[in-house]
Design a protein that fits this description.
Number of strands: 12
Distance between the termini: 33 Å
Radius of gyration: 40 Å
Oligomer: single chain
Mean pLDDT: 91
Shape: extended
Low-confidence stretches: 670-674
Structural class: alpha+beta
Helix content: 55-70%
Length: 674
Amino acid sequence: MSVLPMKHIVVCAKRHDRKAILEYLQRLGTVEIISHDVDETDEVFSRIDVSQSAQLFTKNAAQADKALEILAAAAPEKGSILSAFAGRTPISLSDYETNAKKRDVMMKYVSEILRLDKELTEAKADVPRITTQIEAMTPWSSLDYPLSFTGTKKTAAFIGSFPESISESGIAGALAKYAPDVTALDINIINSEDTFTSVLISCLKSDKNAVDDALRRMNFQRPPVSDMVPREQVEAYEKERAAAIERIDKTRDQIAAYADKRDDIRFISDYFRMRASKYEVLGTLEQSKRIFIVEGYVAERDAASLESDLTGRYDVAVELFDPDPSEDVPVQLKNGPFASPMEGVIESYSMPGAGELDPTTPVACFYYILFGMMLSDFAYGALMSIATFVLIKKVKNMERSMRKTLTMFFYCGLGTMLSGLLFGSYFGDAPTVIAKTFFGQDFVIPKLIDPLNEPMKMLVVCFAIGIIHLFAGLFINLYTALKQKRYVDAVSDSVLWMLLVAGLILFGLTTDMVTGMFSLEKLSPAAGTVGKVMAVIGAIGIILMDGRESKSWVKRTLKGLYGLYGVTSYLSDLLSYSRLLALGLATSVISSVFNQMGSMVAGTPVIGVIFFILIFIVGHVLNLAINALGAYVHANRLQYVEFFSKFYSGGGRKFNPFATNTKYISIQNPQDSE
């Protein structure tokens, strides 16, 4: 377990090599580039404004991503379950450079897909619009005149509707009321519904104004004007709708025809994403007319090879030196295959601060055990380990982060298998239930501890693991203090607390209350005396030293007494490990419930077996998913709250190198292509 030491690097190179050097550093991905505040008085060095170019590249990448989404809808990509775990497609540097020369052609594909998608959107919008027009025209389909018809030389015609169901006599009565002088009227109802009545009303031209005024007072509504007979208009609309639907299908086919260009579009998306990233960095560099300067951090292990590569490839000056203690140096972790899967758990909390130990290895040692105790089923652990092992081996280009996560669950599965062996859980009590239900045999699963029948014994085991876990944190704190030559802190913050807590535990194991509660054998009075002496030494030491930064002995004593009160936090921390028992019991009990449910319907030989298998599979899949999530969450909590509080502060900043942060392709390192 280690935090990689960092070197401060400064590269000074000719400006005409700027593009090549930045692209090389980006592909290499080992340097975190930093920038300083601009010195406005500097007449030699300045920074160039590349924001517009960076925005253009970002826009192009976004358009390519949009084109891929459109393609995915028009021509879904087929893939196996394993493909969901596959990472970016590896590509050699020579292939990358070859494809980069075709970027304009690739962007034409993107533009054409976006244009077709716009047409598709318009065609899709036309269908409901035309459908609405058809629905509006349908009530008039029996009318033999166009809706724009206003009458003949001697008559006036009014085509429209009333917002209610009304008869001819009702219309005539209303017109007689509002236009009593009009006697010559012809009323024809075209269509009548509960809330709508369409009509054609004719009168003499001399009565036009009177009838028009009367109709207005009757809430008469005129339809959209059309020069076509409604029946013909509906037919025209239906043809227009059919054409829009045909246009939709045709446009979809045209988009789907670009499915074989999917890889090109993915490439161009990442190409512009990389260029945008490069230009963002370019805007932070100090440059003169002939040279530019790159400044940042590189891991010490990579520094020598980086210097050699840069000086061998380009005409540059490279300076490497140790960072100043005041610098905000990034943190990069380096661990072996057993512990490295835990780096993501550490990063989720916080990277180690200055001078702190990398906690990844001790976290890994406990994490796999704690997770296993909370899931505590051999079969569940075997399923997890086998599934993750197969995925890791089968998917070759899996992303490093995904591989770490699956490796973490592989080890968690092994820890779960170990716990299952100790507690005799194989899909809960499935062997016993199956033997009794289908074979009429009594089968007892061998186990070291039975959590269901011996919960207090199991609780003692959980507390024992918790004590070891907490003391491991104190030992790490002691080691860190000694390594940094903080000897007083080592004694006051670690040794004294070890004495106090260990002494109280030792003394408690000599009392009837503690041993009786947990059914333990009482230790000898001599052990109790030793425990009391240890606890007293620890307590006095804490009172005297916990407030050592204060000059006044009164303040030191008061702070020491308050610090001693912190012993209660150890009790609460220790009680937190009872969750190992709680979650382990939950897994076991739920498993047993599903097994019993399956056995209850297993009366009929064939049908019973089928129902048993269905209940068994569904129940245990749900149980595994729910309790694996619970084990993951609570294992993290025991690390973050109980373990880290004893030695770890965090506060470090993760190493963020200038790299090819792509979505679809992974460019091989320059050395791989030489």
